[in-house]
Specification:
The protein contains three helices and eight strands. It is an alpha+beta fold and 192 residues long. The protein has a single domain, classed as Alpha-Beta Complex (Peptide Deformylase).
């Protein structure tokens, strides 16, 4: 099943997501649907809040990265915790399925040490570097209620203000994937 992507402006994207356990209903199906949704939208990562579920879960497939053809991480990350940030900050252009049409440079650490559960609820602690670390940090931000635009300078944020308002109102969204635009009447409106 392909879920519509929750678009910038929805308060759900600003909420810190809740931890889950292995008895979470239909978890295997949800993970499969998240990968299907991510591939359909041509993303390299997708966090559960981006499909309207405020839980600490995201999926990644770095092989889809156009920036680094050597990247080879496909994984499921449940209840992750960044234990340590490794190396110096480096800038890299990021975009987001929840903020279509907007890209900008974001500074993030070169690597991270991450503790998480995989899809079988096996506990893992691993180091990630390069594009894989960047993708994980971007998705991790989603479950923390942080969007990449919040990591930009105040000057850059002011330049993007009008565009972000347009995205939040569902104007000029040029996506090939279905989206949910939040309306102040407290409902989401699906747009294709």
């Amino acid at each position: 099943m392909i879920y519509p992507i929750t678009i910038y402006g929805d308060p759900l994207l600003k909420r810190k997501a809740e931890s889950i356990n292995k008895s979470y209903p239909k978890l295997d199906q949800l993970i499969e649907d998240m990968f299907e949704t991510m591939y359909f939208a041509m993303g390299v990562g997708l966090a559960a809040p981006q499909i309207g579920k405020s839980i600490r879960l995201f999926v990644v497939d770095s092989k889809l990265s156009k920036e680094d053809k050597s990247a080879d991480l496909k994984g499921v990350f449940i209840n992750p915790l960044i234990v340590e940030k490794i190396g110096s900050l480096c800038k890299f252009e990021e975009g987001c399925l929840s903020i279509p049409g907007i890209r900008d440079e974001v500074s993030r650490p070169e690597g991270i040490l991450l503790r998480y559960f995989d899809e079988n609820f096996i506990s893992r602690t691993e180091e990630f570097h390069g594009i894989e670390a960047r993708i994980i940090q971007h998705e991790y931000d989603h479950i923390e209620g942080i969007l990449f635009t919040e990591r930009l300078s105040e000057f850059k944020k002011s330049l993007l203000k009008r565009k972000l308002k347009g995205v939040s109102e569902g104007r000029n969204l040029d996506t090939k994937y279905p989206v949910n635009v939040y309306r102040k009447s407290r409902r989401r409106e699906g747009i294709m």
